[in-house]
Amino acid sequence: MKLFIYHAPEETPTDKMPECAIAVDVLRATTTMATVLAGGGEAVQFFSDLDKLVEVSDKFPAEKRLRAGERGGAKVPGFDLGNSPLDCKQEVVEGKRLFISTTNGTRALQRIQEAKTVITGAFVNLTTVVEYLAKNQPENVWIVGSGWQGSYSLEDTACAGAIAAHLLEKTKLSIDEVAGNDEVVAAMALYSQWKDNLLQMFKHASHGKRLLGLDCNDDLKYCSEIDTLDVLPMQQEPGILKRQG
Asked: Of all residues in the chain, what percent carry a pLDDT higher than 70?
C-alpha cells in the first residue's frame, strides 16, 4: 500500500486515478458530512456549483432535503444551512439528504469521484478511515486536502498526516513501505508537532482565523476533536456519499 498526500485538488495527477481516494476538509466540509451521516442523514450529495445543487435538489421531496451552501466561510443566503457541523443535529438531519456545496471541500470530492473507492476523512472520524485502510489494503491511496482556493491548508495536511501516522501504528508497516511521496513524511511531522493541541494549530491556520472572524470558535473546537464519530462516509454513486456499514 502506497499513500500519496496532495495539499489541494489542483495538485493531483490528471492522467490517472487511485484505487482509493480520501477527501479531507477539516474546516469544515468533511467534518460536517461525517456529522450528518452519524446523525442519521440518508445521504450527502455534493456539488461545486450552487445553481446545479438547486436544480437537482428541486427534484427531491422538499420534506426530505436540506440545502447547505457556504462561500468564504459564510452561509449562502436562502439555503437551510451553511457549513457548520454544529447545525447538523440529529433532529435536523435524520432521514434527510443533505445537498451541499462549499468553497473547497466539494471541489476536492469532485476531483476524485472517479476513483474506485472514495471516502471522506476528518479528525472526528480518524479511526474509521484508518481501520478501513488497514483492513482493505488498497494498492494506492490519495489523501487529498481541500486547501483554500487552490493553496495549502495547514489543518488538512495535519489530518492527512494523522491518517498516515495512525495507519503505520496499526499495521506496523514502515514509513518507507508506505510513503509514496515526500508530502507523507512532511504531513506526519506536522501532525506530530501539533497532535496534543490541534485547536491551537487551527487558530494559527489562515482558514481558522477566517472562521474565528465569523464567530465560529465552537466549530474549531468541534473539528479539532479526534474520534468523536464512528462513521465512514463512502461514495455509493458519483456525487453521493452514504454511511458505510
From this structure: 100
